[in-house]
Structure formats: C-alpha cells, structure tokens
Amino acid sequence: MASTALQHVCAAPIARAIRSRAILASSSVASARATDAGPHVLLGMSEPDLQKLALDFGQQKYRGKQLHHLLYKAKVKDIESLSQLPQAFRDSLREMGWKVGRSPVHHAVTAADGTIKILIKLEDNRLVETVGIPVEDDQGSLRLTACVSSQVGCPLRCSFCATGKGGYSRNLRSHEIVEQVLALEELFKHRVTNVVFMGMGEPMLNLSAVLEAHRCLNKDIQIGQRMITISTVGVPNTIKKLASHKLQSTLAVSLHAPNQKLRETIVPSAKSYPLDALMEDCRDYFRETGRRVSFEYTLLAGINDGTDHASELAQMLHEWGGGYHVNLIPFNPIDGSEYRRPYKKAVLAFSAALESRRITVSVRQTRGLDASAACGQLRNEFQKSPLLELPASEPQFSPV
Q1: CA distance to 237, 262, 268, 303, per residue, from 272 (Å)
Q2: CA dihedral 218, 40, 130, 68 (to 10 degrees)
Q3: 156-185 burial, b for 16+ CB within 10 Å, e for fewer?
Q4: CB-CB contact of 298 with 160 (8 Å)
Q5: What is the tens place of the pLDDT at every residue in 204-221?
Q6: How far is CA 211 from the centre of its chain?
Q7: Which residues are catalytic?
Q8: Which residues of 221-241 are buried (b: 16+ CB within 10 A; e: fewer)?
Q9: Is 119 helix (H, G, I), strand (E, B) or coil?
Q10: pTM of the full predicted structure?
C-alpha cells in the first residue's frame, strides 16, 4: 500500500512536468511558425490554422474555432478582449508576442451621400485609406462596397492620381488589408458585401499579400469571390500569375487611353509594359479563367475623352477578341493637378460612341466627392511621412 501510494504521489508531479514541457515545446513551434511569417498576427489566419495554433499552445482544438469567431464576427481588437478564451491561453499568446492585428481609425470623413472615407493608423504610424460606399437598391437592400488599399502610397505615379503624388512607403501585409473591411463593417454596422482593390497602391506589386487577403475575405469573412474585384494598371507577368489561381473574382485593368503613345503620358509605367503586351495578357486571362476582363477608363477633359478616342478604343478591343466591358470614370479633381473633370455631355457622348460600336459600357457614379473622393487625397491632407507618435484617442470624424 505504501509503495502504491508513493507511486501516485510521485506520478502526479512527473505528469505535470511532462505536460508543461509539451506545452512549452509546442509553444516554441507556434512561435517559430509566427517568426517565419513575420510578426505574430492572428488576423488573416484560417480556422484550421487557428485550431492548430490552439493545439500548439496546449489548448483544446475547439479554442481555435472560438478564436475564429472572435476575430471575424465579434471583431475583437486585442488579446485581452478574447474573453471567451482561458486567461492562461491569453497570457501565453501575449507572452509569445502574438497580437490580433487591428489598427485604430485615425480620421474619418462622411460625405453627404453616405460614403465614408477613413484613415487607418498602422503600427508604424503610416496612414492608409479605405472607403465604404453604401448603395440601397429598389427593394431597400443595402450593398456596402469596401474600396481597400494594398500599399501605403503607390510607386507607379500615374499623372492623374493623388496617391502617386503622395509618394510610396511600403506594401501592406495581408491582415492590414483585411482589417480595412472589418473597420468599415464596424462603422456602418452592416456587413461588407463587395470588395474592390482600387484604393491606394498597385495590387499586382503586392500580389502575395493580396491573394492571402482575398482568401481571408472569401473564406473567413465570407464575401463571395464574384463580389471581389482586383484592379491593376498593368505590371508585367503578374496577370498570368493571377490567372493561374483561377479565381472567380473580376480583374479590372486601368487602361485610360486607346493607344500606347497617349497611355505613356498618363501612365508612366506603360513604357515598360506596351499596350499590345497588356492586351495579350488580358486575352489569355479570359481564356484561362473564363472571366471577362473589365477596363477602367478615367475620362480627362480634352485629353482622352473625345469620340475619336472612343472609336479607337472600341476598334482596339474588337481586335483583341471583343466581349470586354468598359467602366468610364469621370476624373475626380485633386489639388495641384492640371487635369479637369469632363462635362457630362462629353461623358455621355463617349459612352454612346462605345455602345454604337458594340462595346458594353457603364459610367461610374461619383461618390464622396465632398469627402476628398479621389484615391489618396484624404491621406495626402494628413500625411506624406510617418506620423509622430501620438497618444491614443478616439477617431476624428468630419461630417461634410
């Protein structure tokens, strides 16, 4: 009896020690995995990844499912707010350097039409823009579109773009893209139904993070792939790479001109990616994915908005197979720009000229014109270099 009792007394501390070493070892694995991927950020992780993380920390697998709900439904912003999780698990996550990966809203501007543009202050004190565009249909249902940024600034410096004038800092990480959508859902108290990668930056220059964010938006936040649009002004070899993923999302190519010579004056990067090569890649993209390419065309008064330009554009599109859609965008005025917004008559004439040549066309309704609507414009009012360290405060809202 004494021997049996002694075995029990000794076995309990030994078992606890073994469990402690196992948790420590698995935590080291979790830490190593996070280190390989950069800073330890929960946002952007899938449910299976979060379940594996929970197991790595010696927790039950279902804790990963709870984490997933807290991140994407409850929209928790810091580790301590993960209140459904055991305190020991939260303490371990914090001690190992894990963060949720949410940033504060630094400033917000609300336009008369309900559009809200926000600046999010990132961990390195950079500011990035995102825009929420609400549209109510005839049945009263609300469609909320998030226009998200993929870079802090943009290195391509298109001549009409406020973002390019503001300079370029760095690529966004995938969670910094995802958090833009969550921030808008909180402000509007409504789920985002559509996402367009048409904010600050060139998505194709940050394709790996864009694809990671796309996966999260689709699988974790549950926005349908066909409700997501990835825009590009054209970066060599990247359209082919995107096609290989066979996404059901829309590819929108910023064209802005019907010929190479004019395009180079508007889009400097076009010099390294001739229009013929871009159109060939767009044709191959359609063949590979079965998804029609949409072309964005910003109308600049007296520059590219004539009916002769429309005729040339239609001819070029037909030469490359037809079936394309053109989205016309009347220029949003920005400070310091030599370009002007075209008159409505010119926009309608351009649209009619395309339609008469069997090109499907739409004219984008300008939203948030009274809220620094042009991409990068609001950010330029506040920052062209990192903010000085500021005390935490409530976001500043400026209704207009």
Answers
A1: 12, 14, 9, 22
A2: 40
A3: bbbbbbbbbbbbbbebbbbbbbbbbbbbbb
A4: yes
A5: 999 999 999 999 999 999
A6: 10
A7: 129, 375
A8: bebeeebbbbbbbbbeebbee
A9: strand
A10: 0.84
